[in-house]
Amino acid sequence: MSNKNETNKGGDSSGRGSVAGYKVNFPARMRAYTEAEIAAVVDVMRNGEVQTQGPCLKKFEADFKAYSGANYAFGVDNCMNALRLASILCRIGPGDEVIAPGYTFCASAIPFGTTGATLVWADIDKDTWVIDPVDIERKITKRTKVLLVVHLLGMPADMPAILKIAEKHGLRIVEDCAQAPGAALHGKKLGTYGDFGCFSFHGAKNITTLGEGGMLTVKSDADAALVPGLRHDGLRPFPAGRERYWVPAMTNVDLDIEKVWPNNFSIGEAQCALGSELLKTLDEKNDVVIAQAAKLRAALKDIPELRYITIPEGYHMVFHQFVLHFDGSKFGKNRNDLLDYLTETAGIRAIVQYYPLYRYPLFQKLGASLHDCPVIEDWWDNSFSLPWWIGMPDETLDYLVASLKAGIAVLKADKA
Q1: Which of 65, 122, 304, 374 has the most CB atoms less than 10 A away?
Q2: pLDDT for 202
Q3: 173 DSSP β-pair partners
Q4: Is the dihedral of CA 315, 149, 351, 182 positive or negative?
Q5: C-alpha to C-alpha distance for 123 and 132, rounded to whole angstroms
Q6: Percent of the chain, pLDDT > 90?
Q7: Is the pLDDT of residue 4 over 80?
């Protein structure tokens, strides 16, 4: 049996991926592909005239726009670069401040840090575990320009409250929906509340386009007009009506925003074809994982040491992960004691993710270590994630429940 001191010989540093010696691993991929999805990719490989910037991209963007209700949708190579585009379009730089949650994946904040703006860490709500609007307003200064709202774990943040704050202070909103495709608040899809929505189609997500991929949704006409050039090397046609189509060259290259270099954040045609196919069953897959979460919560409802995310009325959470908080203080035990039992005795590879960003060496070395986040500090150190994927067998869910109950019983009996 691999133990708590193992090196990760499989998967990646997040803890995902199969590791020998465990009965229940945390898979690297959230879901399997269907034959229809595989066929969509093969068709592009066999018949696609172009491999990027072609008809499949246009269709995927149109399909995602229709699905989400966004004004505009632009396919990109990953969510981090969707966030980079949003940060560029927000026109921020040194001297500006961006308020971001202290509890999220590092890729949420890095694109805004690279602009030279100061990252100001906001606390999380004690019940929903996503960014707290009250703490956002508490941390706004004259230098604040952007609110970065992350719908972590597939849980919607309180967008109506955040919209009021942004309007009051004249701020732009970027929604990080990496873990929330299909999630909604009062019937309105996430990624359509703020100025920008950023989505991930990484392998760990509920919609994955061959391991990487992303989408940027945009609200305003003016912002949307700038995205194609910024996304793809500043390319655009020369003016129409030229006497010779090759003079002076086939394609023009120009700036979209003064003094801002363009990038190449393009996504491939095969990924886009797959994405369009995946959208057809996204809600169905989300329903499966929502039902899994409901079963686990019902089976563990009488275990007072375990606490779960609170889902307010009107919130449609899509459960990117199943996160729990363990309180064994009454018998002198903590999260690590419970995970010792789960890993060593039960063979369950539970994981701990999303170290508070201000604790990471990267952010500390780059001057973003200051924080005032008491809820995160009180909650995070006893939180953990169970192995999780779409379509978990009932026997696996039952085993997780039985192992958690047994582990807590053992810890109680071994009261310090």
Answers
A1: 122
A2: 95
A3: 147
A4: positive
A5: 6
A6: 93
A7: no
CA 222 centroid distance within chain:
26
The two tokens of residue 73 are 């949708």
d(CA 366, CA 180): 29
- What pLDDT is attached to residue 354? 86
CATH number of the structural domain 282-413: 3.90.1150.10
Q: Do domains 35-279 and 282-413 have the same CATH topology?
A: no
Would you state the pLDDT for residue 9?
47
The domain spans of the chain are 35-279, 282-413
> What's the pLDDT at 1?
46
SS (H, E, C) the chain: CCCCCCCCCCCCCCCCCCCCCCCECCCCCCCCCCHHHHHHHHHHHHHCCCCECCHHHHHHHHHHHHHHCCCEEEEECEHHHHHHHHHHHCCCCCCCEEEEECCCCHHHHHHHHCCCCEEEEECECCCCCCECHHHHHHCCCCCEEEEEEECHHHCCCCHHHHHHHHHHHCCEEEEECCCCCCCEECCEECCCCCCEEEEECCCCCCCCCCCCEEEEEECCHHHHHHHHHHHECCEECCCCCCCCCCCCCCCEECCCCCCCCCCECCCEHHHHHHHHHHHCCHHHHHHHHHHHHHHHHHHCCCCCCEECCCCCCCEECCCCCEEEEECEHHHCECHHHHHHHHHHCCCECCECCCCCHHHCHHHHHCCCCCCCCHHHHHHHHHEEEECCCCCCCHHHHHHHHHHHHHHHHHHHHCCC
pLDDT of residue 5: 57
Q: Give the residue carrying structure tokens 């986040």.
A: 373
Architecture of domain 35-279: 3-Layer(aba) Sandwich (3.40)
Mean pLDDT of 349-373: 96
Which tens digit of pLDDT belongs to each residue from 212-269? 999 999 999 999 999 999 999 999 999 889 999 999 999 999 999 999 999 999 999 9
Burial class (CB in 10 A: 0-12, 13-18, 19+), 210: middle
Rg (CA), the chain: 23
How far apart CA 90 and CA 111 sit, in angstroms, is: 12
Q: What pLDDT, on the 0 to 100 scale, is given for residue 3?
A: 54
